[in-house]
């Protein structure tokens, strides 16, 4: 069941859903608009012949900031990581879906490749996977509406929340765009199969 604007407001008032900062005008009929934060993680040219998912990607990216007086220009085919301006927190019995704004999709801006699902127990800013599918560059401004989050009720509360020690959650509490930590799945004695 998708939560309506009325239920979202009730859950916000109870503190079970956290969106901070929040402009009440951003609450839509069944979602809440989210905004682009200032920092972007840009992929640099590398001498690596490929991306090895078993290795850290720290040397493949660098952080840039969108200035107030000029936008970041996302070129055709370019891929950068951004972040929501808002901190998002979910209780044990809700999941969320992050989707792009249709007006931005109509100009070729995609805000996530696969990371549109937000687990129960999540706390932090959401990393955005920004791609330009258009043939012209697209401007990105600090604070612009970038996506929307909707909430779905679980059949029961989750037993293991995102961020619990047993899950080994890699992104809990993030405040900036965060590069892939998939390589951590291959380290240690209890390596998990890639998912």
Provide a descriptive summary of the structure in words.
- This protein is mainly beta and 195 residues long.
- 7% of the residues lie in helices and 33% in strands.
- It contains two helices and twelve strands; from the N terminus they run H-E-E-E-E-E-E-E-H-E-E-E-E-E.
- The strands form three sheets. Strands 1, 3, 4, 6, 8 and 10 form a six-stranded antiparallel sheet that branches. Strands 2-12-7-9 form a four-stranded antiparallel sheet.
- The longest helix is centred in the N-terminal third of the chain and has 10 residues, at 5-14.
- 23% of the residues are buried.
Keywords:
single chain; 195 residues; mainly beta; six-stranded antiparallel β-sheet; four-stranded antiparallel β-sheet; 2 helices; 12 strands; globular; disordered C terminus
């Amino acid at each position: 069941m998708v939560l309506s604007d009325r239920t979202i407001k009730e859950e916000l008032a109870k503190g079970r859903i956290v969106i901070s900062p929040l402009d009440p005008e951003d609450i839509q009929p069944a979602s809440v608009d989210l905004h682009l934060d200032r920092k972007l993680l840009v992929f640099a040219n590398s001498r690596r012949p490929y991306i090895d998912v078993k290795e850290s990607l720290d040397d493949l990216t660098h952080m840039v900031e969108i200035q107030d007086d000029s936008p970041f220009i996302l070129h055709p085919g370019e891929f950068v990581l951004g972040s929501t301006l808002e901190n998002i927190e979910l209780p044990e019995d809700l999941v969320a879906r992050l989707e792009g704004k249709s007006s931005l999709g109509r100009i070729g801006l995609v805000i996530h490749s696969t990371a549109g699902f937000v687990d129960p127990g999540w706390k932090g800013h959401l990393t955005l996977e920004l791609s330009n599918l258009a043939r012209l560059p697209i401007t990105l401004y600090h604070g612009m509406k970038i996506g929307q989050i909707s909430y779905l009720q679980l059949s029961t509360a989750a037993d293991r929340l995102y961020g619990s020690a047993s899950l080994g959650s890699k992104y809990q509490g993030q405040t900036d765009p965060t590069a892939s930590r998939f390589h951590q799945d291959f380290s240690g004695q209890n390596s998990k199969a890639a998912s």
